[in-house]
Amino acid sequence: MNTKRKYFGTDGIRGKVNAASMTAETVMRVGMAAGRYFTRGDHRHRVVIGKDTRLSGYMFEPALTAGFVAVGMDVIMFGPMPTPGVAMLTKAMRADLGVMITASHNSFDDNGIKLFGPDGFKLCDAAELEIEALMDSAFDEALPGPHLTGRAKRLYDVDGRYIEFAKNTMAPGFSLEGLKIVLDCANGAAYKVAPTVLWELGAEVIPLGVEPNGFNINKDCGSTCPEAISKQVQKHGADIGIALDGDADRLVISDEKGNIIGGDQLLALTAQAWKSKGKLNENTVVTSIMSNLGLERFLAGEGIDLIRTQVGDRYVVEALRERGLNLGGEQSGHIIFTDFVSTGDGLVAGLQILVELVRQGRPASELLSVFKPLPQCLKSVGYKAAKPLEDATVKKTVAAADKQLDGTGRIIIRESGTEPLVRVMAEGEDESLIKRLVEDICNAVEHAA
């Protein structure tokens, strides 16, 4: 099978609206192709569709619906709904396929498509490649007769279903009473459900990013702009701040002092806590190659093994499923508890952090300073070369950087799966050294022929 991707990237299809892969025509082809791929058997086939709050969602939702209806699938539209909610409801509602219209943490002028199989998990590479092949086939190929086209309807009680699901990940009787929480929903998909969950569990909630207008998703708010919660936590004297991204599948935390806490510390805390409770399967955690070496050293000291995967939360999930594990995540804030969810869920992960805040009774600044991270430098750089990572000068520069680190750190260099950029990361004991090494590699990539 041809393994070169034309449409799908690290996490579904994503791009600039009305350009390249994100036009109404292409999105309709996604619907037709994915619908054909998941049409198996002679039952009435069903697809559920959620979206975030981008203006272009009004264009892509009907385009997808048209594609699915054309190939005989019945469509249920949720409207704004967190990505993990779509994943959960795909399985709960016995759908053959789930779709989320989102570009996650990107600005409003991008959009994208995430697909979930009937089990609620993201698709594997092989399935995405088969769907790509179907997308490029003739529009009128293998279409059903007029009497077999699908129907479409909107489901209006969907918010309540996800709210109850999230609350039910807590132990019976668990309460957040007495906690003051700043919650930033990034003007995105969780703007209704997330504040409701925390309030119904007893917290005093100070909501931010809950006034979407189609243009302001992730704009100066959410997990990509954590300064917003940091300031508000300090202003209101809150116990903790939680910032979600546009589709609410990841989070960052602010402690009561305004310090920003990323995914590695959250993984360390929950791994340690779950091991102490006997809940951590095989005493093993899964993360990507980007997580800090300090996390790996901390977990080893706790008797917890670490498995690394390539970048992308779906690869973390695949490793969790293969080994029967129940905790994994990424430095970016995708945290996956497979006891509850089939993909990253920023709200559910936040609730698990709040469980420990309540149980241990310590300030967030103490609770979330679990290990000392090694200095790490990450930079993205554009390129002109067709295959920048195969350039001889780039290879030579990376090899020289590895030699200078001499086993005391790591160099990670990879092409972005969603943008025309190369990501360069270095970590080690000497902060000035790793910054210089990253600059050297970025310069080589930028000038690669």
What's the CATH class label of the largest domain?
Alpha Beta
Specify the biggest β-sheet: 7 strands, mixed
The radius of gyration over CA amounts to 22 Å
Return the average pLDDT rounded to an integer: 94
- As residue ranges, the low-confidence spans are none
Structure summary, number of beta strands: 19
User: Outline, from the CA principal axes?
Assistant: globular
Helix content: 25-40%
Name of the CATH superfamily of the largest domain: Alpha-D-Glucose-1,6-Bisphosphate, subunit A, domain 3
Based on the coordinates given, report the CATH architecture of the largest domain.
Answer: 3-Layer(aba) Sandwich
Which structural class fits the helix and strand makeup? alpha/beta
The helix count comes to 14
Q: State the separation between the terminal residues, measured CA to CA.
A: 30 Å
Main sheet: strand order: 1-2-6-5-3-4-7
Q: How many domains make up the coordinates?
A: 4
For this structure, the CATH topology of the largest domain is Alpha-D-Glucose-1,6-Bisphosphate, Chain A, domain 3
Description of the structure:
This protein is of the alpha/beta class and 449 residues long. The chain folds into four domains: 8-157, Alpha-D-Glucose-1,6-Bisphosphate, subunit A, domain 3 (Alpha-D-Glucose-1,6-Bisphosphate, Chain A, domain 3); 179-258, Alpha-D-Glucose-1,6-Bisphosphate, subunit A, domain 3 (Alpha-D-Glucose-1,6-Bisphosphate, Chain A, domain 3, 3-Layer(aba) Sandwich); 262-345 and 362-367, Alpha-D-Glucose-1,6-Bisphosphate, subunit A, domain 3 (Alpha-D-Glucose-1,6-Bisphosphate, Chain A, domain 3, 3-Layer(aba) Sandwich); 376-446, Alpha-D-phosphohexomutase, C-terminal domain (TATA-Binding Protein). The chain has 14 helices and 19 strands. It has helices at 24-37, 57-70, 83-92, 125-135, 158-167, 193-200, 227-236, 263-276, 293-301, 313-323, 346-360, 364-367, 392-405, 431-446, and strands at 8-9, 12-16, 45-51, 73-80, 97-101, 110-116, 152-154, 180-184, 204-208, 240-244, 251-254, 260-261, 284-288, 305-309, 327-329, 335-337, 376-382, 410-415, 421-427. The strands form four sheets. A seven-stranded mixed sheet has the order 1-2-6-5-3-4-7, with helices on both faces. The chain has a five-stranded mixed sheet with strand order 9-8-10-11-12, sandwiched between helices.
